[in-house]
Amino acid sequence: MQSSTNRSGDRYSFPQKVWIASGIVALVVVGLLFLQATFSVLLLVLAGVLIAVFFRGLSALLRRKTGWKEGLCLIFSVIGTLLLVALLFWLIGARVQQQAVQLSDTLPATVSKAKAQLAQNPLGQKLLQKISSPGTQKKFQVVVQGFFRSTFGILGDVYVILFLGIFFTVSPKIYTKGLVHLLPVAAQETAQTVLDKIGQNLLKWLKGKLFAMLVVFVLTAVGLVLMGVPMWLVLAIIAGLLNFIPNFGPLIAMVPAVLVALMQDFTTALMVAGLYILVQVAESNFITPSVQKKLINIPPALIILAQLFVSPFAGGWGLVLATPLMVIIMILVQELYLKKREKGN
Known about the structure:
Layout (H helix, E strand, L loop, with lengths): L1 H8 L4 H53 L3 H49 L3 H11 L1 H14 L6 H17 L1 H10 L3 H43 L4 H11 L5 H15 L3 H26 L8 H15 L1 H29 L1
């Protein structure tokens, strides 16, 4: 009688429950190990998606302004972007290359001069001793090696990203529909809505980020020219490009600019540091918020945490792509959990 009650009231016996629990744990562990092993590849796929989002967004803009067919606008967006980049390299490439070579030749002497100036006061001497210690140098080497770690090598990663971006640009629906069809039929409509919203938010974020990079380049270039800092063009380009990396990018860009300014005097170096801080404050508090008004709001501390958690797994790509990754995660949480919880209440 008791056994029949157990069979009717409890579907599985104790040994079966143990095996099921063990299987679930093993599946979770295998899933986490697989995610760890393929996380860098997934970030490269995300970078390719961002390139496709840019090309598709530019194509949509051309279509709205001209009324041309989608295929023609897409060709113009891809080829036009490549031609514009080639034109910029042709116009300022020689000067940028000259200043880049000059910067690489100047930095060692600048570092030596900075060390000499720091050695003139007790606080600077303590700082130099801390920086020159074997433990600090070893930690710095580990950080640098981790930052420049890549999946297929730097050129290989760029090659993969570009080709993925072109494939996603040409036929995005093939990949989105294929991903949606892997899910149960009841969840396909929700999945398609979520994917569409992710694409829209990534496009808004990318627009704001590119505009902010341009503004940072212009403001930095104007400030450096007014201060009479040499190699202003390459320093401004570095500042604009590294602004793509939130929080850490502007700090990295400020280092060579301050070192170059030290070749003149300490006051100029302080002015250059103040310029970079002022530009970053303006970009963070006025430029980006005004451009990305309708974008999902991500707290700055959350971005820093994402960079700290992701970068150990993927190096520099983790720092670069932490923000769009957080955009995707927050949309997933919002659409798949928060909205359903509100409806349930």
